[in-house]
Amino acid sequence: AVVRQVTGAAEASVGGAWKAVRVGDQLLPGSVVRTANNSTVDLFLDQNGPLVRLTENTTLGIDKLNFENTGIDTVIETQLDLKSGRIVGIVKRLSATSKYEVKTPNGVAGIRGTIYSIAADSSVMVVEGQVVVVFVKADGSVVTQVVNAGEKFNPATQRVETMTSEEKRDAEAEANQLRGMVTEAEETEPPPLLFLSPVTGGTK
């Protein structure tokens, strides 16, 4: 995960030592990132995203960022651990064998090609695509709900509801900001290296 933008103050930890986060920092699996009041951090996950934004007062663990190019498609395994606060993300369309999950203290959200917002209380809003929410209630029983575009999962009722016009407007505005960040991040990625064979003259 590459830090693409920091607004305000944020820190990252690997093994317990916290340090300030700066644009360009690379955060490996096992890292934990946290933001302060009125602060955000945008992380570029490339194949495993491409983008996730930590809003203010958010703590996010980066558990897994695996991907494999099979020659037919790219299989990814992304696992994020949302300990507190809220994140917003853009996930490109995934292959059938790929997995993108966001853990929360009360469950897990499975995400397919989607623009989403997830809070640590398991609240979920979906701007585009679909999210499958698995919510563990106080009595230990499990509720599974599918949240589609324009809908939200309300952990208080354990039901899927239609987003209000204000929620939809704010979510779409946030999504548009992230789309701009994705374009900028992709444009600044270094070009692939080509090897010119001195024997055949071919490239690979």
Describe this structure in words.
The protein is built from 1 helix and 17 strands. It has 204 residues and is mainly beta. The mean pLDDT is 88. The strands form 2 sheets. A 9-stranded mixed β-sheet has the order 3-2-4-7-8-10-11-14-15, with no helix packed on it. The chain has one helix at 165-187, and strands at 2-7, 10-14, 17-20, 32-35, 40-44, 50-54, 59-69, 74-84, 86-91, 99-104, 107-111, 114-119, 124-128, 130-136, 142-148, 151-154, 159-162.
Q: How many beta-strand segments?
A: 17
Range of helix content: 10-25%
Shape type: globular
Judged by helices, strands and strand pairing, the structural class is mainly beta
Biggest sheet architecture? 9 strands, mixed
Topology of this structure?
Elements: E1 2-7, E2 10-14, E3 17-20, E4 32-35, E5 40-44, E6 50-54, E7 59-69, E8 74-84, E9 86-91, E10 99-104, E11 107-111, E12 114-119, E13 124-128, E14 130-136, E15 142-148, E16 151-154, E17 159-162, H1 165-187
Parallel strand pairs: 8-10
Antiparallel strand pairs: 1-5, 2-3, 2-4, 4-7, 5-6, 6-9, 7-8, 9-12, 10-11, 11-14, 12-13, 13-16, 14-15, 16-17
List keywords for this structure.
50% strand; mainly beta; 17 strands; 204 residues
Short account of what is shown:
11% of the residues lie in helices and 50% in strands.
